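Recall that a protein's primary structure is simply its ordered list of amino acids. Everything else, from secondary elements to tertiary packing, is in principle encoded there. The following example makes that idea concrete.
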Amino acid sequence: MSQEKVDRYKKEKANRQKMMRREKLMFRLECAATVLVLGGLITWFSMAVYSNVQAQKESEREAVTTTMNVTGLQNYLSEINASLEDAAEEE
């Protein structure tokens, strides 16, 4: 059993440089992938904010004015006011 441990240790020691290089490479690849994903997310978010701001500016430039005919409502309210005044005079 002891000889097996010694042999395993020797194999690990012989491959240690390859394993360390592989680990460093994997770490660098993970960092690069993380930076690319974060860069993409930041770019996407920036473009979304920019397009929303541009859309708001265009909507402000093209302000739509709507006119509404409220003469019927004004007549109705004036009739109610008149009937309330008549009721108040009768009391």
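The chain has one domain: 2-65. The chain is about 85% helix and 0% strand.
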